[in-house]
């Protein structure tokens, strides 16, 4: 499980330079990045052992219900290198600080994500733990599925892999550390609400264009 996850982690994106001069520059860049990240996590999910054993409907329901949590964890982990600067790293060449976030109306999103960055930093999360926690988020949806037993098998396989990995990497205090990692998940669920509300408002106010996939994922499932 860990070997596959370490190999299928999507690469960090670069911004689309054609968006640099448009109105609401930062929002336009963020919208484009979220859309492209969504394409990446669909491909990522299909490589996780056990995911494609689920029905296609269940696969889509899981992605529709967890994409915001997955992208938030990805953003937070990527931003750990900037934790002292309190900047969020959305792409290799695009970061946001508090002032920029306030200017584009994304202050709540920024503060919520910074809180998760701090949580991960306090845990000194390792990349192997991040890979498995991210997969666990995909499998931890509360959405109603056709094949619950297949989901349980998928989720249990990730939990076992997470416990085994932490036991090897942190032989002292492994059980407690697994618990602390799992306690990050409610904060990610809370971030889900913030992110969906933010992008729904952006769409309703027609502030920037939003691509078809992003809109479909935003509108398909609301907690």
List its traits:
223 residues; mainly alpha; Retinoid X Receptor; two-stranded antiparallel ribbon; 10 helices; 3% strand; globular
Instruction: Summarize the helix and strand pattern as letters.
Output: HHHEEHHHHHHH
Please give the count of helices.
Answer: 10
C-alpha termini separation: 29 Å
Biggest sheet: strands, sense, closure? 2 strands, antiparallel
Tell me what portion of residues adopts beta-strand conformation. under 5%
The low-confidence parts are: none
- How many DSSP E strands? 2
**Could you report the average pLDDT, rounded to the nearest whole number?**
94
CATH superfamily: Retinoid X Receptor
Strand order of the largest sheet: 1-2
Q: Which fold name fills CATH's third level, the topology? A: Retinoid X Receptor
Helical content stands at 55-70%
CATH hierarchy, class: Mainly Alpha
How many domain modules? Answer: 1
What gyration radius follows from the Cα positions, in whole Å? Answer: 17 Å
Protein name: NR LBD domain-containing protein
Organism: Ignelater luminosus (Cucubano)
GO molecular function: DNA binding
InterPro entries: NHR-like_dom_sf (IPR035500), Nucl_hrmn_rcpt_lig-bd (IPR000536), Nuclear_hormone_rcpt_NR3 (IPR050200)
């Amino acid at each position: 499980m860990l070997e596959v996850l370490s190999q299928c982690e999507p690469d960090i994106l670069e911004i689309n330079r054609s968006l640099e001069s448009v109105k609401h520059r930062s929002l336009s860049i963020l919208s484009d990045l979220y859309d492209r990240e969504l394409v990446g996590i669909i491909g990522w999910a299909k490589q996780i052992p056990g995911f494609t054993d689920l029905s296609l409907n269940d696969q889509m329901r899981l992605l529709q219900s967890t994409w915001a949590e997955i992208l938030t964890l990805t953003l937070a982990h990527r931003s750990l290198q900037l934790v002292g600067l309190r900047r969020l790293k959305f792409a290799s060449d695009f970061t946001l600080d508090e002032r920029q976030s306030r200017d584009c109306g994304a202050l709540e999103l920024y503060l919520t994500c910074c809180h998760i960055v701090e949580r991960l930093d306090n845990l000194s999360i390792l990349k192997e733990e991040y890979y498995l926690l991210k997969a666990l988020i995909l499998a931890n949806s509360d959405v109603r599925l056709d094949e619950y037993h297949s989901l349980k098998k998928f989720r249990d396989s990730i939990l076992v892999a997470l416990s085994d990995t932490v036991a090897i990497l942190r032989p002292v205090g492994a059980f407690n550390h697994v618990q602390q990692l799992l306690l990050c998940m409610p904060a990610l669920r809370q971030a889900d609400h913030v992110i969906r509300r933010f992008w729904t408002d952006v769409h309703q106010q027609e502030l920037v264009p939003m691509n078809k996939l992003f809109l479909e994922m935003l509108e398909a499932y609301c907690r």
